[in-house]
Design a protein that fits this description.
Blueprint (H helix, E strand, L loop, with lengths): L2 E7 L3 E8 L4 E8 L6 H19 L6 E8 L3 E2 L4 E5 L4 E4 L1 H9 L3 E5 H12 L7 E7 L3 E7 L2 E2 L31 H4 L1 H10 L12 H9 L3 H25 L3 E5 L7 H14 L2 H4 L3 E4 L6 H13 L2 H4 L3
Parallel strand pairs: 1-4, 4-8, 9-12, 12-13
Antiparallel strand pairs: 1-2, 2-3, 5-6, 6-7, 9-10, 10-11
Helix pairs in contact: 1-2, 3-10, 5-7, 6-7, 7-8
Length: about 325
């Protein structure tokens, strides 16, 4: 059996999985990232997680052909360097070189949102679709575009930052210097910011986070419902630009905020119907991701499968 290891590196968790050529997970490990320990310790945790997934699969370590890893960015895929990521507080971390020496395997690096999109396109909600647009509504807002089974990287490998589409030029300033970007409205941090802005307070003993406000909205709290209405409208404005530019056959949503369902997507669809060309909406499908918290690791594995040299892939 031919296998690779896919690793999804997040600010909160590391998920590693042994994955075969059909996208099936044969062994999995999940553990806290513990980013506060610093880059070297986190990279050692990645290596341990990959070995643990291998052990759980029952497949000898030597049998795995390579390792794919999805990391927050921006990053340089060619150099194997994470250039900067606030989630981990990393700058110019040579992740690929370190892991190749530690694991004695070929290692391939990709942006985490791109990898997740690739996983969904391969064996998830975007299977058999030609143009897939994935939008992850998590701590931030990430995006990935898959064209005929391949990631659209852009000229220098830093495309698909959908969360940085400006939806309100006069909106709040970001740490990046821009104003009113989609991430400030349709992410978990965006939901918390909107709640604070309209003076929505959590239930006694509950944290002031998106999950709490979602529960309050579902129970009919007027202010909480307003928060999701605003987030949905802003998501719609951002998606108008993305859909007009990409012309996808399917849009796949993932991440914690997407679980709000119609509270978020109903106002989004209203904006799309008002502002999108009918030609771009005709036949366009909207789906939720199928792979859950495995999508990043499966996508990272697919990155490895696509980049392994033919001489390695064809070895028996």
């Amino acid at each position: 059996m031919r296998t690779v290891i896919g690793v999804d590196l997040g600010g909160t968790n590391i998920v590693s999985a042994v994955v075969n050529e059909r996208g099936k997970i044969l062994g999995k490990d999940k553990r806290p990232t513990l980013a506060h320990l610093g880059a070297k310790d986190v990279m050692l945790r990645i290596a341990d997680s990959a070995r643990s997934a291998s052990h759980k699969s029952g497949i000898p370590w030597a049998s795995h052909l390579g390792v794919g890893i999805g990391s927050p960015g921006p990053l340089s895929q060619k150099r194997g360097v994470v250039l900067y990521t606030p989630n981990l507080n990393w700058k110019n971390v040579h992740l690929v070189d370190f892991l190749q020496k530690e694991l004695k395997k070929r290692v391939y690096l990709e942006n985490d949102a791109n990898a997740a999109a690739l996983g969904e396109s391969w064996v998830g909600a975007g299977k058999d679709e030609t143009v897939v647009l994935c939008v992850t509504l998590g701590t931030g807002v990430g995006g990935g575009i898959i064209l005929n089974g391949r990631i659209f990287e852009g000229a220098t490998g830093v495309s698909n930052h959908i969360g940085h589409i400006v939806v309100d030029p006069n909106g709040p300033k970001t740490p990046y210097g821009n104003r009113g970007i989609l991430e400030q409205y349709a992410s978990t941090t965006g939901i918390a910011r909107l709640a604070k802005e309209i003076r929505l307070k959590p239930l006694p003993g509950q944290p002031a986070d998106a999950r709490t406000f979602e529960e309050m909205a579902l129970k009919g709290n007027r202010k909480a419902k307003k928060v999701y209405e605003i987030a949905g409208k802003m998501l719609g404005i951002g998606m108008v630009s993305a859909i007009h530019l990409v012309n996808p056959s399917v849009v796949i949503f993932s991440g914690g905020v997407s679980k709000a369902g119609d509270m978020l997507f109903k106002p989004m669809r209203k904006i799309l119907e008002e502002r999108c060309f009918k030609s771009h909406l005709k036949g366009l499908k909207f789906r939720l991701a199928k792979l859950g918290d495995n999508m990043g690791a499966v996508g990272a594995a697919r990155v490895a499968w696509l980049h392994l040299p033919s001489s390695v892939k064809n070895k028996r």
